[in-house]
Amino acid sequence: AMALCLKQVFNKDKTFRPRKKFEPGTQRFELYKKAQASLKSGLDLRAVVQLPPGESINDWIAVHVVDFFNRINLIYGTMSEYCTERSCPIMSGGLRYEYRWQDDSKYKKPTKLSAPQYMCMLMDWIEMLINNEDIFPTRIGVPFPKQFQQVCTKILTRLFRVFVHVYIHHFDSIISMGAEAHVNTCYKHFYYFIREFSLIDHRELEPLKEMTERICH
Predict the structure, then answer these.
(1) Which domains, from first to last, does the chain contain?
(2) What Gene3D superfamilies does the record point to (predicted)?
(3) pLDDT tens, 60-77?
C-alpha cells in the first residue's frame, strides 16, 4: 500500500522532481544494485551500510547520497499536502530547533523560511549539486573533488532536517497514511549510514535523539 501511495503522489504531482538515476553499465550503477540487493535481502541495516570490500568509499557515499535524496524527497512529497505555509510557517523541529536557509547565491545570510519553502530550496539545491559533474563525476576515471565528503556532509545534514520536521510535526499524517514502517526503515538506514562514516555532527542529531534510541538499537 505504501509503494502504491508513493507512486500516486509521484505521478500526481508534476512539480515533483524526477529521480536521479545511475547510468547502467557504470561502476556506480553496479554499486547501487549491490546496495539495493543487500537492502532487500533482509540483512541487518547496520551490515548493509558497510563499505563492500575493494570498493571506493567516495563511490559508496555518492550512491547513498543520491539514493537517500530520492527516497526522502518521495517521503516529503507524500506529506507535502499537510505541510503548508499556514501549518508550518517556520522550518522547525519542535519549539527548540529552527532551521534557516543559506545557499551562497540567493540567500547569503541564514534566512527564516516556512517549511515548504525550505524544502523546495533544499531539494533544488541538492539536485543542482548531484547533477554537477565537478562534484559528483559520473565518467570513469574522473576523480572526486577534494571537498566531496564535506559537500556530502552538508547535503546529509540538511536531509536529516527533513526527517526532524516530518517526525516532529507530521507524525500523525505518517500514521494515518500507514507509512510509519516505511519511514522508520528509511530513517534507520539513513542513521546507520551517517554513523558508519561519521558524516553528520552528533549535535545535529539531537532533535530525534530519544526516538533514535528507541528504534535504532
Answers:
(1) 53-216 (1.20.140.30)
(2) MOB kinase activator
(3) 999 999 999 999 999 998
Handedness of CA 44, 150, 152, 13 (dihedral sign): positive
Residue 62 burial by CB count (10 A; 0-12/13-18/19+): exposed, middle or buried?
buried
Q: Half-sphere exposure of residue 58, counting CA atoms within 13 Å on the CB side?
A: 15
Q: Give the model's pLDDT for residue 4.
A: 45
Task: Label residue 30 exposed, middle or buried (CB < 10 Å: 0-12, 13-18, 19+).
Answer: middle
pTM above 0.85, yes or no: yes
Residue 88 marked as a ligand binder: yes
Model confidence over 86-102: pLDDT tens digits? Answer: 999 999 999 999 999 99
170 carries a ligand binding annotation:
yes
**Distance in angstroms (rounded) separating the CA atoms of residues 187 and 196:** 14
